[in-house]
Amino acid sequence: MGKPLCYNRSIILLILAVILFQIWVFSSFCLTDLDYSLSHLKNADASVSTTQSFHGDSCAQLSVDSKGSYARIYIYPDQPLPFEDLDQFSMWIRPQSGDGAVQVEFYLDGDGDSRYDSKNLQDARVLSLKKSWSEMEMSNSNWNELDGFDLEYEKYKDNTFLSESLDACKSRLEGKSIVKIYISIYKDSKVPDTSAFIDYIKIADEVISFEPLEEEDIKDGPSSATPGGLMTYTITYGNNQYHPVDLIVKEDYDPRTVFVVSYPPPDPGTINTWTFVNLPPGAHGQITIKMRSVKPAARASIDGHVSGKGFASTEGMLSTEFESYPVTNKVHITAGEFNFSASATTKIRPIIGSALQYGEHGAGDYRAQEQLTYNSASIYAQRDILAGFSPVSVNLSPNGIAMRGDWSAKLLAENDYRNIVWSDRYYQAKSLNLSYKARIGKTLSYLDTNACVLGLADRTAYWPNGFTDTKLAGNFTLQGKARWMWANRSVRPVNVGWLECCPLGQG
Ligand SMILES: [Ca+2]
Ligand SMILES: [Ca+2]
């Protein structure tokens, strides 16, 4: 009657934390949901200027010469804006020369395709009646507010729709959405040049102030990074209001990231908060933050010892591989009545590493001793196994069941970094005296084997541009040294085929 094996070691089975999220999302938000572009025509120009500004440091300068007709600002909401949600529509104008006329146009989508189509009867185009700055009682060389709700509008090519207020248009065209807005300056034909500055266009809750940073993403970061590597995030903030505000930027870091440094530095005593007191209207700025992802802690060193008589089944696995995972850093900006949130997600690239699997099965006497050393760059294993077959039985029934068993052993090493795989298998063995040292690393991988076997052995190795396959049967000793060196950007085998076999005669 065989006794159950007494295992006085803990099971060596390390399964590394694997984070399965493969999906990464990169979301981007700007301080304004409005995009704009400026017309560039032969005899008229529109450009961002810093010579004047109502809000911040910049505005749009529109000018038309005597041969031109108009200069224009094109505005595109990121998402179609329901016409009925247009509760504010205003801009500031500083006439510079001539008595130019202003016209605004709304292009509306009515069929839900997010586009304006002049041939589609459900879509609509609404234009304000042109008004000169003298008619609007604007003074030259001063900033004047134009409230779009003070203008009168008509629907393009619709005689039933004349000179309505913007509120009346909104109710008559309910259900349609704004997909683009034109703001045009038409020339005063009595003078050679007509020009004006325009700043701080407010459309519902969104503002265009022509400041260089307002179209930057609030949060920008790398789409991918190496494990443990540095990641640089940029936060763009701005005061979109008329008055100075205390603006607070608060970061919500991913727990798998570590703050390294930022410019400007965070508020004293914090690593994630920046306060800008009394930030002037239109002022914008950026914060650059360097973060590091947490490097997976892949490190273990294990000494084991097993001995006993009976059935033995051991299994071990070590791996330095890590799957990709995403880290998301969020930012919240509070500025008076405004709140902005944005996030940037960075995919941490996988670690291509190595894996070592080993194990023995059989019945009889078994002793194993091992030393395993393990870190994120390499795996080292030294194992000595002594196993001999003897019949044993398992006490599953009152009479017990006699079992006959052979010994089998395996060692499988995969160096995915250098594309080396080797596999040693021993099976149908009556006795097995196995001693090996295996190291899997980036520059050197080796397997030193000393074996004395009564049974079958199968040794295979694959590496770039080569492989070996050796099959042995009988009562033999086997000594082998196989080394793969990484040099000159390639894996070079050294002694990989070297194997000394010595038959001991059939036992
Ligand atoms: Ca449409
Ligand atoms: Ca501005």
Give the biggest sheet: 9 strands, antiparallel
Shape: elongated
> Which cofactor or ligand species appear?
calcium ion
Tally of individual domains: 3
Helix content: under 10%
Structural class: mainly beta
Q: How many strand segments?
A: 36
Count of individual helical segments: 1
Uncertain segments are 1-28
Please state the CA-atom Rg, rounded to the nearest Å.
38 Å
The pLDDT mean sits at 85
Quote the distance from N terminus to C terminus: 25 Å
Question: Your description of this structure?
Answer:
- This protein is mainly β and 507 residues long.
- It folds into 3 domains: 34-208, Jelly Rolls (Sandwich); 219-293, no CATH class; 300-325 and 348-503, no CATH class.
- It is built from 1 helix and 36 strands.
- The strands form 6 sheets. Strands 1, 5, 6, 8, 9, 10, 12, 13 and 14 form a 9-stranded antiparallel β-sheet that branches.
- The structure holds calcium ion (2 copies).
Task: Please sum up the structure shown.
The protein is 1% helix and 58% strand. The chain contains one helix and 36 strands. It has one helix at 166-172, and strands spanning 34-38, 40-41, 44-49, 59-65, 70-77, 81-82, 89-97, 101-109, 124-128, 131-132, 144-147, 152-155, 164-165, 177-186, 193-203, 206-208, 219-220, 224-225, 230-238, 245-252, 257-263, 273-279, 284-293, 300-319, 325-335, 338-348, 354-374, 379-389, 392-394, 401-403, 407-415, 420-440, 444-463, 466-487, 490-494, 499-503.
